[in-house]
TrEMBL record:
Membrane topology: Single-pass membrane protein
Protein name, as recorded: Nicalin
GO (cellular component) term, any one: endoplasmic reticulum membrane
Cell compartments where the protein resides: Endoplasmic reticulum membrane
Species: Pisum sativum (Garden pea)
GO biological process: regulation of signal transduction
Keyword field: Endoplasmic reticulum, Glycoprotein, Membrane, Signal, Transmembrane, Transmembrane helix
Length: 253
């Protein structure tokens, strides 16, 4: 594969555990034949009353597989690349909730959920399909953020590059030749320092209303203005939280 021309975006976050990262997909047989770089978003990691939740690791360096893996495959050193469209909750219950060993997980989200791609390719799905995927994502999110996962978990958006990689991975899995150091295949690599605990910062949530006035004898009322400054970014992938969603929630009350 050819190296992607664009550079990964440099970003900083207050919490070390929720920074946006990139991963490299490497086609290799003893040496690297090529690589491509894709933006990914790490699953949240937090402790509540001393109890750990979320993904507990950030670094990743394992070969890739799809949901078409062999039933007898050892996945303890394998990263599963899973499109949200293909996810079934029986897999979630068997591997995530039951705590079966995995090398890592990368969930692929449709472009219709990418706010940066508004109006772009794949951003317009039919309402019924989008609503179904939103329900699946919401159910998955609740499971992920309330489970302690001893391996890295990331999210990425579908595009032509990652779709082509996934197709190759599926072909390898279907042929009964999963990726290994000797057979070759794709390897997912995330180079990141392990997250460290940070103190809770003092944060204030502010909201207010400037109510429009209506004068005597006037049938029209001036518009009401909402003033909002929100830190509501708690979710499966905090980096992808969009403040506009908070505004939509506020005006739907």
């Amino acid at each position: 594969m050819a190296m992607a021309a664009r550079k990964p975006r440099n970003r900083e976050m207050l919490f070390d555990s929720v920074i946006a990262l990139v991963f490299i997909l490497v086609a290799c047989v003893d040496f690297c034949d090529g690589a491509t770089v894709v933006d990914v978003y790490r699953l949240i990691q937090y402790d509540m009353s001393g109890v750990p939740f979320g993904s507990r690791l950030a670094s990743l360096n394992h070969h890739a597989a799809s949901l078409h893996f062999s039933p007898h495959a050892d996945l303890s050193r394998t990263v599963l690349l899973i499109p949200l469209r293909e996810l079934n909750m029986s897999f979630v219950q068997e591997y995530i909730v039951a705590g079966k060993p995995l090398g890592g997980l990368i969930f692929l989200l449709p472009q219709m959920f990418n706010f940066e791609n508004k109006g772009g390719v794949g951003s317009n799905g039919d309402d019924e399909s989008k609503e179904l995927l939103k329900n699946v994502l919401a159910e998955l999110e609740q499971i992920l953020i309330h489970t302690s996962l001893p391996y890295p978990v990331y999210f990425a958006f579908e595009d032509d590059n990652i779709d082509a990689v996934l197709l190759d991975i599926k072909k390898n899995d279907a042929s009964g030749q999963p990726a290994t150091a000797t057979t070759g295949g794709y390897k997912f690599v995330v180079s990141a320092t392990e997250p460290k605990k940070v103190g809770s910062p003092p944060i204030t949530n502010i909201q207010g209303w400037l109510a429009g006035l209506k004068t005597d004898g006037d049938s029209h009322q001036l518009p009401t203005i909402a003033i909002v400054a929100s830190y509501d970014t708690f979710g499966a992938a905090p980096w992808e939280a969009i403040v506009m969603e908070v505004a939509l929630w506020l005006f739907s009350k």
